[in-house]
Design a protein that fits this description.
This protein has 215 residues and is an alpha+beta fold. Helices cover 17% and strands 51% of the residues.
Length: 215
């Protein structure tokens, strides 16, 4: 479907121009794939057409600029297979515009140092367990959930970006490299205190026993 987007006078002039005989116009086939976008065709006389779907229009052989406006975040616009958002052409020499929106992917690298694992959960509900170093390709704009789990006798010291919580999430908008660092758990203070108290008690009891025995 074609949506003229200019003043009434210019619309009428442009429509009359497009309805001219086939000998003076050339077909232009437009396709949009991979997401939501519009194609705006600009003419030298200041008029333009806005196209939001697959269609065919007939154009006179004059310089036309096609510009793609994408509504698909984190995606790359391809026009006839090349990464670009606009193209200038003459309809006599180019009869099709194929617009493809390709999702942008980023690399998420998870490293594990020490005795522990990191569970990586993606928006599509799939997950993976990382024990050393693994890289994932993640679509831009997606949220990834991370959960660090220390093995017995160890604790999470923190992440390489100074985050200390075991569970966290990240928004993928660029390549990301994170390291979870696990260390030995410190001795439990209560047990140490109990041991020292026990030793003190034994020494006290032993001392009293020794004194009474000598008497």
């Amino acid at each position: 479907m074609i949506f003229p987007s200019c003043s009434m006078g210019l619309n009428v002039a442009l429509l009359l121009l497009l309805m001219a005989s086939a000998s003076h116009t050339f077909p232009l086939h437009i396709t949009i794939e991979g997401g939501q976008a519009i194609v705006v065709l600009y003419y030298g006389n200041g008029t333009f057409l806005t196209i939001n779907g697959n269609t065919t229009v007939y154009l006179p052989n004059q310089s036309v600029q096609a510009e793609v406006v994408s509504f698909q975040p984190f995606s790359t616009v391809l026009i006839n297979g090349l990464a670009r958002q606009n193209i200038t052409f003459f309809p006599e020499t180019m009869n099709s515009i194929n617009v493809t929106l390709v999702p942008t992917s980023y690399t998420l690298t998870i490293n594990v140092v020490g005795n522990g694992t990191v569970k990586v959960k993606f928006q599509n509900s799939t997950s993976a367990i990382v024990t050393s170093r693994v890289s994932f390709k993640v679509r831009g704009g997606e949220i990834v959930y991370l959960s660090a789990l220390a093995l017995p006798g160890n604790v999470l010291r923190g992440w390489s970006d100074n985050v200390s919580s075991q569970e966290r999430w990240i928004l993928m908008y660029n390549n990301t490299n994170l390291t979870a660092v696990f260390v030995k758990a410190p001795p439990h203070k209560d047990i140490q205190d109990l041991n020292l108290a026990g030793v003190g008690l034994l020494l006290t009891v032993g001392g009293i026993y020794w004194i009474f025995r000598r008497k």
